[in-house]
Amino acid sequence: CPLSGSPVPQVTSRKYPRLKEGDDVLGGAAAWENVDSTAEPCPKCEHPRAYFMQIQTRSADEPMTTFYKCCNPQCGHRWRD
Predict the structure, then answer these.
(1) Whole-angstrom Cα distance, residue 39 to residue 44?
(2) Going by C-beta distance under 8 Å and a sequence separation of 6 or more, which residues neighbour residue 67?
(3) 71 is in an annotated binding site
(4) Which of 3, 11, 25, 49 is 20 to 30 A from 43, alpha carbon to alpha carbon?
């Protein structure tokens, strides 16, 4: 056998990096302060209006991603289109 010495030890644990929260990526809570609202119903509470912002998340030849936040302060559900 050409190899000598002890074999490579097995991996016993893994550390995964902490993922950023969605708010961190979108600019935090301050990003929603001066946004417009539209007649988009909330899929969670069915409130008739939602705040929205558009961000270019992919390459320039792809359409912008629209992020929504429910206008109902008790709900605050967020989704994207």
Answers:
(1) 15
(2) 26, 52, 53, 54, 55, 78, 79, 80
(3) no
(4) 25
75 is in an annotated binding site: yes
**Span between the terminal Cα atoms of the chain, in Å:** 59
Record the pTM. 0.64
What count of other Cβ atoms lies within 10 Å of the Cβ of residue 69?
20
Flag whether 1 is marked binding. no
Question: Predicted confidence band at 26 (pLDDT cuts at 50, 70, 90)?
Answer: low
Options 3.40.50.880, 3.40.50.720, 2.102.10.10, 2.20.25.10; CATH for 36-80 is 2.20.25.10
